[in-house]
């Protein structure tokens, strides 16, 4: 092909791609500070932050609640607040969602922003902003500061329990890497994001196999530190006849179980991981070197924030897609029909 015809072909291709982008121009990139100037001169992010600060003073466990909520929202049908929709068959009714909490926090933040500027701020953005604020209150987010979130998400209208396909606590590191890759997140992102387990709890029902009958051996997980095994045995009796399902801190350093820091990694390298995936992360050759580097002080705070920003970009609705819900618990169509 002559260089002239190559040039023409290139032009046609580039222009064609440009036209295609225009035709599919319902979406727009997320941006930092999307709400600037969209609610008079009011700083919407500061308003949300105020709500989270008040809530955190009463209940510092909201950081764990919101981190898990953002993970579950973004992993199922993208970060579109589908996890917030009520309904007999919606995502929040699916088994892995049973213990997701914090819905009232989002309701409160939404009520406050709706009172100031109705129909402007999406529920999907509120989840991401609120999580960032709570992480900052818990000491995370880059030198004690906040990571800078991008905004401009819009809310979805599809929320189905059958779409919920979240990793189980016994997923292997290699399958977990695949699950994250399906969302555009690389293995390093995954290792940092699992650092979310530096706060919060799990229920005994999800770790009893590791304590008493690991992979049907009738024994505990051989990779579990013996002191941790003693602690967990006491906290999670084998044959608890009651329906009470005790909780156990995911970060087993008692001084740090409420703080967003690298302590989770320091624990798992000492074989003090609580969930099976936590322990395996420190041992599997696919992730052990990254874990060791973070445990030794490699920049957790900044990198965790960056990974959260990336998580917040998974399959988002933007531009003219979706809607800005009036109530985070219902689509606008449902709200009108009520
Ligand atoms: C392979 C990936 C993951 C698996 C298998 C997993 C699994 C789990 C399980 C089983 C629990 C305990 C639930 C309960 O007993 O109530 C839990 C809790 C939690 N997860 Fe994950 N998780 C994963 C990734 C993440 C990510 C990426 C984040 C956030 C960035 C996250 C944040 C949390 C938090 C904060 C809690 C504690 C919630 C609370 O205290 O209410 N997890 N996770
Ligand atoms: C729990 O139940 C199993 C099976 O019934 C039994 O083998 C085991 O000894 C019991 N453990 C305790 C601590 O009672
Ligand atoms: C990670 O695992 C590989 C393979 O087992 C091993 O050679 C390496 O030393 C491990 N790295 C760390 C930091 O333990
Ligand atoms: C928060 C929430 O909606 N939890 C629901 C989880 O699913 C169970 C069973 O479907 C419901 O009873 C809960 O209300």
Automatic annotation (TrEMBL):
<keyword id="KW-0349">Heme</keyword>
<dbReference type="Pfam" id="PF00141">
    <property type="entry name" value="peroxidase"/>
</dbReference>
<feature type="domain" description="Plant heme peroxidase family profile">
    <location>
        <begin position="29"/>
        <end position="332"/>
    </location>
</feature>
<keyword id="KW-0479">Metal-binding</keyword>
<dbReference type="InterPro" id="IPR000823">
    <property type="entry name" value="Peroxidase_pln"/>
</dbReference>
<keyword id="KW-1015">Disulfide bond</keyword>
<keyword id="KW-0325">Glycoprotein</keyword>
<keyword id="KW-0732">Signal</keyword>
<keyword id="KW-0575">Peroxidase</keyword>
<feature type="signal peptide">
    <location>
        <begin position="1"/>
        <end position="25"/>
    </location>
</feature>
<keyword id="KW-0964">Secreted</keyword>
<keyword id="KW-0560">Oxidoreductase</keyword>
<keyword id="KW-0106">Calcium</keyword>
<dbReference type="InterPro" id="IPR002016">
    <property type="entry name" value="Haem_peroxidase"/>
</dbReference>
<comment type="similarity">
    <text>Belongs to the peroxidase family. Classical plant (class III) peroxidase subfamily.</text>
</comment>
<comment type="similarity">
    <text>Belongs to the peroxidase family. Ascorbate peroxidase subfamily.</text>
</comment>
<keyword id="KW-0376">Hydrogen peroxide</keyword>
<dbReference type="InterPro" id="IPR019794">
    <property type="entry name" value="Peroxidases_AS"/>
</dbReference>
<comment type="function">
    <text>Removal of H(2)O(2), oxidation of toxic reductants, biosynthesis and degradation of lignin, suberization, auxin catabolism, response to environmental stresses such as wounding, pathogen attack and oxidative stress. These functions might be dependent on each isozyme/isoform in each plant tissue.</text>
</comment>
<keyword id="KW-0408">Iron</keyword>
<dbReference type="InterPro" id="IPR010255">
    <property type="entry name" value="Haem_peroxidase_sf"/>
</dbReference>
<dbReference type="InterPro" id="IPR033905">
    <property type="entry name" value="Secretory_peroxidase"/>
</dbReference>
<protein>
    <recommendedName>
        <fullName>Peroxidase</fullName>
        <ecNumber>1.11.1.7</ecNumber>
    </recommendedName>
</protein>
<dbReference type="InterPro" id="IPR019793">
    <property type="entry name" value="Peroxidases_heam-ligand_BS"/>
</dbReference>
